[in-house]
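Hi D.,

Good news: the full-assembly prediction came through. Inputs first.
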Amino acid sequence: MSYTKKDIAVRKFDVVIVGAGGSGMRASLELSRAGLNVACLSKVFPTRSHTVAAQGGVSASLGNMSEDNWHYHFYDTIKGSDWLGDQDAIEFMCREAPNVVIELEHFGMPFDRNPDGTIYQRPFGGHTANYGEKPVQRACAAADRTGHAMLHTLYQQNVKSKTNFFVEWMALDLIRNTRGDVVGVTAIELETGDLYELHAKAVLLATGGAGRIFAASTNAFINTGDGLGMAARAGIPLQDMEFWQFHPTGVAGAGVLLTEGCRGEGAILLNSNGERFMERYAPTLKDLAPRDFVSRSMDQEIKEGRGCGPNKDYILMKLDHLGADTIRKRLPSVEEIGHNFANVDITKEPIPVVPTIHYQMGGIPTNINGQVVVWDGEKNNVVNGLYAVGECSCVSVHGANRLGTNSLLDLLVFGKSAGKHIVQFVSGYGDFQTVPADGADRTLARLNQLDGSKDGIYAQDLANDIRQAMQQHAGVFRTQKTMDEGVEKINAIRERVASIALKDKSKVWNTARMEALEVDNLIEAAQATMTSAAARHECRGAHTVYDYEHPADHPECPLGRNDKEWMKHTLWDSETNSLRYKPVNLKPLTVDSIPPKVRTF
Amino acid sequence: MKRTFKIYRYDPDKDAKPYMQTVELELDGHERMLLDALVKLKAVDPSLSFRRSCREGVCGSDAMNINGKNGLACLTNMNSLQGDVVLKPLPGLPVIRDLIVDMTQFFQQYHSIKPYLVNDEPVSPSKERLQSPEEREELNGLYECILCASCSTACPSFWWNPDKFVGPAGLLQAYRFIADSRDQATGERLDNLEDPYRLFRCHTIMNCVDVCPKGLKPAAAISKIKELMVRRAI
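Then the structure:
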């Protein structure tokens, strides 16, 4: 079969949201409550979105456990970001945090509770009181199922406000008019294989990250960077894609996440000597230093021969001293994961862990209203009609390294603010714009290339090549040589994408077609990452390059960070596979800027 | 090690009717879970269709009937499956293709219990509603449901009346809100279930408890709802 223009059905909505995870559903709630005609598309039923897998908590300086305020949270987030985060966006997020978390509680979120009935908060990596002085309990938690509880709560509220979900629909491409405004998307209904043009006054991308560009990942199968691919193909540069977070505690071999909440509740990391090595690397925060820091320390231990197990290739996380009661109350899923994926009873013995790809700090550049922006060399220009929120976006609050629990917060804060802005935008919009007659041409070409293919590469084989290359060339520790080789490898793999062949041509729920279409998105995310990484000649946050490492007392580049030359955001353009840069916004909205300093913990 | 899979196959685009396909697959020991084996089977035959996402038992995508019992492929250890592995779609729901079922009725029943907190009392936007740890504990064993449909599609009452009987998953969630100290709609929720079918088609067969991959007990929640019904009647 093949797809032709006349097969395309057209439907019109005020707003199309692509993705029904935490950020998409927080936004859709705002929109459906305002009475707009919204279509919220998702590859999976909304509660199967990857927000569901978040475990540890959502941060807000509620101060329920001890003194805390948003200024501390603001400071921690900037320091966590290694001064690559934009301070206006970070101020906005940290100030809004208590409001959106309380609101979530009012929505019915089953947070754990303190004896006085307030929301329970646990310690987390990089969360401190009084500007780094001591750990603080800021992570609002529902056991170790915070993301699950949050995603279901948001879905429930959307059921109440009658949001129009298009379940198991995959968006394929953005449609832009001659002025560059985004006026819709193309999408395929997976059950029928039917192709649609969905015309809209505003499109919101909320498709999550592209964690599946790596071989060992905590991410779900669906995290293929679909929004990134759509934006990149539509000529929108991707920002800061070299910054990928390795979560310190993925189950060795399986990749499944074990929340930082484990260490928040008191778990410790041990090397083969039984030493709690984080005391050496981060004397103040120890095992609760930020994730990039802990992951690097673990990797260092392994490299120096103090890894555990027969191959000395993992670290042990010890939890048994917390006691079975605390584990069952606060970390019940972790106990299950131990049994299911490591044959370990964590109430009795330590569990093998390794740093594992977890989160994409970069993404589609936006402002604090979620509007997608393109840098013209002097200023950011808004792409009319296009918004992005959540992990697919880069606002940028996470900079070079995200603090644990700031991801769920990001979803709530910017999902809501984008929703509010879209309501305003649509109210002043007037009639639908004319959609260009060739609006679906790119999509048709992609589909027909697959449907016309006979012999060629199996999509998952090529996807696995991407994953192996990324794992090898963009890992925890990078060298200039491995990155340069990685660029060549990914460029070569990109050439082969056009040779993907689809054996299964069925129209009905064709998962093979879906997976092949996802490769178009994986390759954009992978090339953006590899090219951006190889060009950044410094160490900052999660981007650590052996060649540029320096001690903490280096006069120009403490710990390898080169603020003079590299305190700037990377922008990668897909069509030319080239880079530009724009300055970091060091100016908060209302308070004093936090100037860069040496990042020790 | 070679394993034999017998898989329900049906693609309405080309098959006149469903059939069971027997496939042998060489496992190299890296396929810890059934889902790992399925991904490998799909690499051999990309037309094999099933849902999957998180691969760690929290998203609820990959529920299917495994050797006669409903469960999640991602949480089913290959070593726990003896002999041939027989895979069928969840029973009682229309099959779209292979192991993918149409879950519309399942979600309609979930939606029918008004699965959201109802509390119209004014509340300060800067303060949480207070709830004691004991009150919060009442939600344990309820809120963790992943809507995988293993329970409802293992329930003979749901097979017979999927349009009228809410089913264990929906009823578990109905009780999740009844049990929430913050929710004020217990009366309406009970009214909504007071019906020969919606609640009372549950005959305590207990299949729901037997199959739940999260270890939840829908039957216990259902009996608590029935108890509340009785209590308010006398």
